[in-house]
Structures are given as C-alpha cells and as structure tokens.
C-alpha cells in the first residue's frame, strides 16, 4: 500500500523534460544557469586535496555552525546555540521533511497556505498527518480569518513560506503580529517557516521568524545555501529551532542522512567569510528588472515580485486555455518553459498565471524576451 498514492512526477520534472525535448529555454525550475562565484570555485579547488572527505559530526561541521550562528546574529540579532539549536541538512527540502516528521504524529493537522511548494503536503502525509490547505488572499498575503477558522483541536503545525514561492510575496509586520495573536490563543501550535529565499528580497526587507521573540520558542526555520549562494546542486541547508524541538529533529536526521556532504560544508564555511549577501540581492534585483523589461509591450501582465527569483505573469489576454495546457503550448510552439501556478493549489485554482524563473544569464533572459514578444 502506497503512503503517497496520489503523488506522480512533479510538474518541475514534467516541464523540464518537455523543455529538453523541444529545446526550449527553461525558465521553469528554480535553478541558476550561470557560473558560481569564482571565489567559491577557488576555495573548492584549494580544499579538494585537503583531508576533509570523511563524515562530519551529525549536526554539521562545527566551523560552519559557528559561521551560521554569526550570520544569524549579524542579520537578525538572534544568538543561536550551535550545540542545541542548529542543524545542517541535505538541502532545505530534507530539513523540512525531517522537521515535519519530528513534530507531526498520526492524526495531527497541518495548515498549509496555498499556493504552496510541493514538498510540504507529501511530508505531512508520510508523517501520518492531515494537510489542511488554506488559500492566501488574491494578492498572496495571508488571510488570517481563514487560518483561524481552519484551526481545530488537532492542529499541530502551520507552515509559512517567506519570501514566497511561487509568488514572490513578502510578509509584512502586520502579518507577523496577526500570526502571533493566533498562536497566543493556540499555544500548542508550532510554526515551520520556510525562508530559503531570505537573502533575495527587493523593495521590502525580509522579516525573519528569527526576529520575532514571541514566535522563536515555537518555530523551526529552514534556510538554504543552495538558494542563497546559487549552488542548488550542493544540497546544503540548515534548520534553526529551540532545543526542545531540535532534539526531536536530530533523532530523525541521524537515521535519515546522519551527516551532510563534508566537502560542501567545508567550502561554504570558508566562503561565508567573503560573500556579501547584499550583492546577491542586488544581482537578482537587476535580473528581475531586465526580465520585466523583456515582458514590457507583450500581452503578459506582470505581477509584483517582492522577493525570490520568480516572476508571475497573467496570460488571460492571450489565451483562455488552462494554465497547464498553455504552459505546454509555450514550450512546444514557442520554445519557452514556465510553471503553471495551479499546481501549487490543492484545488488546482487556475487564475491564468505562470511562474518564470529569472535566475538565468542576461543572454538567456533577453532570448526569452524575444520569444515572449511573439506570443
């Protein structure tokens, strides 16, 4: 008997396979196609011949944990105990899966805000929990009336994603205040905050759970070096959580992966001494501006992108087809791949919106723009 009977190939795989088949420009999956920082490559080359090829400690390389703690203190003014409140994971997805399975028991309910990243629900189901999908507002801000009315005596966890994939929405101060009010009324509910795009925000600064004293003791925060340093294939992320939660998370982590790639941890540890995350945000802001410029004078309507490296567009003036069929048409007939946003909803809400990834070379974005102008 399958634990995930309704899970099939992800839309990301489907669209990338179609893109490869038709030699389309792939703006579907969220990975950069440009080279990593030369400083990172240089550090990698220097360390490759060092004696760093065996297991690291289960919770992570000590020097890397120290650097993450410094990063957290510098950016969020939070002091984290590296021995009891932090864990290096094999990517944020593994961290999220591990956290959910440490907290959620059979019959527990987990609130997921739609549109939502596709790994949340399967992780809840494997844990024996019940996903409760709650739609965001039309502008993709959280609807706390809906959230509050979805809470029952079985609610164990609320999963939030900020900056948000697929929409690029960033939570505001008022959103966190409303969440805090809800959790004051329901003190037994935990929060899992997916913040993998935390260093990619534009006009509005990202607000981390790390900065919310009322939420810290009941929250798990997931971060991703793959996203922040554009090395998605390295699959290195980390979790920050209070000791009583991290203790349970580590129990599962040690039997799931035990420890994370040693070379990647050593390289990232040294690279954190020289990388400037403000430059990362500035780079992506320029790419967003370039891609939006390519979309001007097309029939696509550009929607706001406050963070992440994703751009939503509405195509309702172009076609009445559902978003999955239109996305396939774009690949087959026009040579450009995107992700239909309906797949991020439990009920397949179709607002005629596609998600493009602009974490690509300028040349790629300009070529994509030329194709989009023909549609």
UniProtKB/TrEMBL annotation:
| InterPro entries noted in UniProt | Aminotransferase_I/II_large, Kynurenine-oxoglutarate_AT, PyrdxlP-dep_Trfase, PyrdxlP-dep_Trfase_major, PyrdxlP-dep_Trfase_small
Matching entries from SUPFAM superfamilies are given as: PLP-dependent transferases
Keyword flag Transferase: yes
Which keywords label this protein?
A: Aminotransferase, Pyridoxal phosphate, Transferase
Q: Per its UniProt entry, which superkingdom is the organism in?
A: Bacteria
Which positions fall inside the Aminotransferase class I/classII large domain? 24-365
Cofactor(s) required for function per UniProt: pyridoxal 5'-phosphate
UniProt keyword annotation of Transferase present: yes
What are the annotated GO cellular component locations? cytoplasm
Gene Ontology MF term list? kynurenine-oxoglutarate transaminase activity; pyridoxal phosphate binding
Q: Which NCBIfam families match?
A: PRK09082.1
Q: Which family does it belong to?
A: Belongs to the class-I pyridoxal-phosphate-dependent aminotransferase family.
The name of this protein is Putative aminotransferase
Q: Which organism is it from?
A: Tenacibaculum jejuense
